[in-house]
TrEMBL record:
Biased composition (Basic and acidic residues): 241-265, 399-413
Protein name (record): Alpha-globin transcription factor CP2
GO CC terms in record: nucleus
Source species of the chain: Pipra filicauda
Upper taxonomic lineage: Eukaryota, Metazoa, Chordata, Craniata, Vertebrata
An MF annotation (GO) of this entry: DNA-binding transcription activator activity, RNA polymerase II-specific
């Protein structure tokens, strides 16, 4: 028992010795760091806690970016701390991107008082889809003829100059802007993320996109080719109001997590700041046929040579202005865009040519409204606008001059059983009722240039020649008939035309 009672005493001695040794080992830390030098910020500054910063260039930490782009849409709260932000957008909704001048005083003086050009792109975030981007976009264009992936809402935008969209590059727009002035551009994304997923069982997650902005300044050659800055952010696009529902779902999920779990996720910010990235490679690409999408009055760009070696050309769209019942829904969509019915193309996306032609006047007016409905109905029925003046002319020299002098083929038909001369008249349709328009029509009939017809005369009473003027044409009766006689001018290679 005595031995057993001494055991705790021995343990206390051993324990006190260990404590003294441990305290002595810790005393060196205080001597090296000094009083008050130990803090959490020093620990976080160690390289093992700065993995992201160590992967960046050394100068990037102190670098001030010349521009900053802010997308006015909230970020998702369900993104982990060290992951890139994710922003949800609604299809077709206008979102503001603020273009901010972030330069210090004296930085980049060469762009002071000058415009810069920014190119907006919606591209794939996944590397796998980036390799097949051309094929993916061509497939989308075939399924959505006439639509664009990216558009600028010009009426809502502020400070943008000369906005342009290339009809063959559906995911790209560009414009000029002055960094010294307030600039906000409103963009619309018309594709949704699930359009590029393999549909198997339904409910698949949509692929993420990137909104990338590349800004250039004007070079010595006058073109905007000198790169200044690039930034991008990650987005997902949902059907209308789908982004709001997804944002609400993520917020409710985060509210159910514990406080410890919430620390692993980023908070949701009201706006999305685009982060610096490499400029997008400018690879020239010419698809099989241009898409008649957004195109403003400033025209489009010239494309460089090149193309995708794996791209297969699709059949060219029909060029007829008359809708045919044999046309497929894709061909009918293209016809609608050519006839300026683009806003209603989605309503008729599953209609073939025969389906459209079966619509009654009341059906079209109910779908498109009175003004556009009547216009579409007339286009479907092929109703043409009647010309203001129709003239019938016969070239006198072509009919070989009748040997019986004085016979007028307009009033005296040819006698006999058909062995005589047969006079052929041509119709001229005038819209402007001007002498210049009549000269162009006659030049086309004679297969000469318009400047070769010097003057046009009308034979009046007693054989006088009256100069044809705009006022004379405006007073001619419709469907008048004339014989044409031509006299070659002596001094030049031109003609005088006489209407008899």
């Amino acid at each position: 028992m005595a031995w057993a009672l001494k055991l705790p005493l021995a343990d206390e001695v051993i324990e006190s010795g260990l404590v003294q040794d441990f305290d002595a080992s810790l005393s060196g830390i205080g001597q090296e760091l000094g009083a008050g030098a130990y803090s959490m910020s020093d620990v976080l500054a160690l390289p093992i806690f700065k993995q992201e910063e160590s992967s960046l260039p050394a100068e990037s930490t102190d670098k001030v970016l010349p521009f900053q782009y802010v997308l006015c849409a909230a970020t998702s709260p369900a993104v982990k701390l060290h992951d890139e932000t994710l922003t949800y957008l609604n299809q077709g909704q206008s979102y503001e991107i603020r273009m901010l001048d972030n330069r210090k005083l004296g930085e980049l003086p060469e762009i002071n008082g000058k415009l810069v050009k920014s190119i907006f792109r919606v591209v794939f975030h996944d590397r796998r889809l980036q390799y097949t981007e051309h094929q993916q976009l061509e497939g989308w264009r075939w399924n959505r003829p006439g639509d664009r992936i990216l558009d600028i809402d010009i009426p809502m935008s502020v400070g943008i100059i000369d906005p342009r969209a290339n009809p063959t590059q559906l995911n790209t727009v560009e414009f000029l802007w002055d960094p010294a002035k307030r600039t906000s551009v409103f963009i619309q994304v018309h594709c949704i993320s699930t359009e590029f997923t393999l549909r198997k069982h339904g409910g698949e997650k949509g692929v993420p996109f990137r909104v990338q902005i590349d800004t250039f300044r004007q070079g010595d050659g006058g073109d905007y080719s000198e790169h200044l800055h690039s930034a991008s952010c990650q987005i997902k696009v949902f059907k209308p109001k789908g982004a709001d529902r997804k944002q609400k779902t993520d917020r409710e999920k985060m509210e159910k997590r514990t406080a410890h779990e919430k620390e692993k996720y980023q908070p949701s910010y009201e706006t999305t700041i685009l982060t610096e990235c490499s400029p997008w490679p400018d690879v020239p690409y010419v698809p099989s046929a241009p898409s008649p999408g957004f195109n403003n009055s400033h025209g489009t760009f010239r494309l460089g040579d090149g193309g995708s070696p794996s791209h297969q050309a699709e059949p060219p769209p029909p060029l007829s202005d008359t809708l045919l019942p044999t046309w497929t829904p894709q061909e009918a969509q293209q016809w609608l865009h050519r006839q300026r019915f683009g806003p209603f193309a989605r309503l008729f996306r599953n209609f073939s040519g025969a389906d459209l032609l079966k619509l009654s006047r009341d059906d079209v007016i109910q779908i498109c409204g009175p003004a556009d409905g009547i216009r579409l109905f007339n286009a479907l029925k092929g109703r043409q606008v009647r010309p203001r003046l129709t003239l019938y002319v016969c070239q006198e020299s072509a009919q070989g001059r009748d040997p019986r002098q004085g016979r007028d083929p307009r009033t005296e038909p040819e006698e006999g059983d058909g062995a005589g001369t047969f006079f052929v008249y041509h119709a001229l349709y005038l819209e402007e009722l001007t002498a210049a328009e009549l000269s162009e029509k006659l030049a086309h009939l004679f297969r000469v240039s318009a400047h070769q017809i010097q003057q046009i005369h009308k034979q009046g009473p007693t054989g006088i020649h009256v100069l044809v003027s705009d006022e004379m044409l405006q007073n001619l009766p419709d469907e008048s008939c004339f014989l044409l006689d031509t006299l070659k001018a002596e001094s030049s290679d031109s003609y005088h035309v006489i209407l008899k």
